[in-house]
User: What shape does this take?
Amino acid sequence: MAPTSLADLISALPEGDGWGPPPVTETTLNGVPYAPFSKGDKLGRMADWTADSKDSRDGRGGRQQYNRNFRDQQIYGAGTAQLFTAPLAEDENTFSVVSRETTKTRYGRGAVFTRGRGQRGARQDTRGGRAQLQRGGRGGQQGYGYDSRGRSNAPRGRRFGWKDYDKPARNRDASVNIKPDWQLLEEIDFNRLAKLNLDADEGEDLDSYGFLYYYDRSYDKQPVKAAERRLVPIDRAAYNVTTSSDPVIQELAEKDEATIFATDSILSMLMCSTRSVYPWDIVIVRQGNKIFLDKRDNAALDMVTVNENAADAPMESTDGNKDGINTPSALAEEATYINHNFANQVVLENENQKVEMAHENPFYNPAEETEPPASKAYKYRRFDLSTSEEDPMYLIVRAELDAVQKNAISGDDQFLTVKALNEFDSKAPGSGGALDWRTKLVSQRGAVVATEMKNNSVKLARWTVQSILSKADVMKLGFVSRANPKSNDKHVILGVIGWKPKDFANQMNLSLSNGWGIVRTIADMCLNRGDGKFVLVKDPNKSILRLYEVPAGSFDDEGEEETVPETVPEEE
Assistant: This one.
């Protein structure tokens, strides 16, 4: 082969300034070469100067956990051949074995399942320096361990609220139909309502009606397990008359005693509205310079709700609840029935020992009623909601008392309000993680009450406000449970606990000043309009109150209003 001269080599070089093959347009962008990639490729970081140095430092394999937060992401520019190559049609990573065997789950830190006594191979696990003491179980059953600190390793069940972020939202129906001719005046969210504040006085008594029986103190004693007291239905004439139908309030309104008139049930719902979850509505009537807070017949706020504030509240049958007696509507009827009968059962009906008020019951007519009147006193009390001396504003509320008892020390009469909490099934969906009252009410009373404060925040807040409005000395709370969790017609009384209403309000972080501020704000909104009828509606699915102005006579024909309500459309 003839030798090649240097001149021939130089002449064989391609023309141009650069070395290498000529650039092609498929791998250049504005003349800059780049590696082709797909839109589906992940770009973790623009640059990572620590990936190679810290993960393989000193040739020891490095700290594998250093970049554990980014180990599933790709680093742009590293391993280009692996990053941008198309995956094979069948990748071993996509292959998985389908197995029907249940997966063993570890519950909590260091929790292990130990064999029950009666099985072969029972052992103690002393790993980590903590002895796993066995709890004896029957043969063939699984027992759970306790560690040396007395902490149970048994599965505690599903943690409420965990992984509920992807559950579909529950769409509740509105408590009243929103008609097309209703005019929306205001839309107030709960965050704004929670910032309102108005200090009011302690209130003054204007008049009192009815009578009270003495409370049976034997219910305060711890019941014997073998002799639990059953809840007995007692038929007594009880009334829940709305504000504008009350003859006493009509008489006080004619005398110009106040500007705002309400009952304790309606007023407590308005004052505790920021805690509510279920829909409700209040009818507001303005006549001249007076405001009447009314309710419709069979309104939602007449019912006693159950676990309204629970993280896992009871579900409707349309949401998948197969147990018909544990739906919100069925539980509300059950709780209302329990409260009515419980207040009648815990008093001593003795005509010779009862406290008479200044006037007789204004709603009881012996000629028409076949049942005797219930132990009930109605107090008409006035509160000062004025913000200045130039603009006085007073509110009159009809408050109720249920019983009376002698003070154990001084012997004076103490007025009581009597309410009842009810347990349906501590293991059923919607129980809100409640403890079993039969076993925990005596030994862990504080935990039981704290759970009820969380699950029934609005119900207990309303009862506390009603007790403070009536100036009751003690609020008695009964704990009533089903005799059989699968049946809602028989109940037993497990215990009664009494609190001073203001102390209970402090435990619940309940602010009366905030409640008075809400009442005054809603009243001012209506007073700024002309005479007419308004409806304050709680949105069924949002923490919002809406104030509508409705045509006169909207609720006169209740037959039309009892149709199935539709979901309130979202306001823009």
The chain has 13 helices and 20 strands. The first strand starts at residue 28 and ends at 29. The mean pLDDT is 75. The two ends are 90 Å apart (CA to CA).
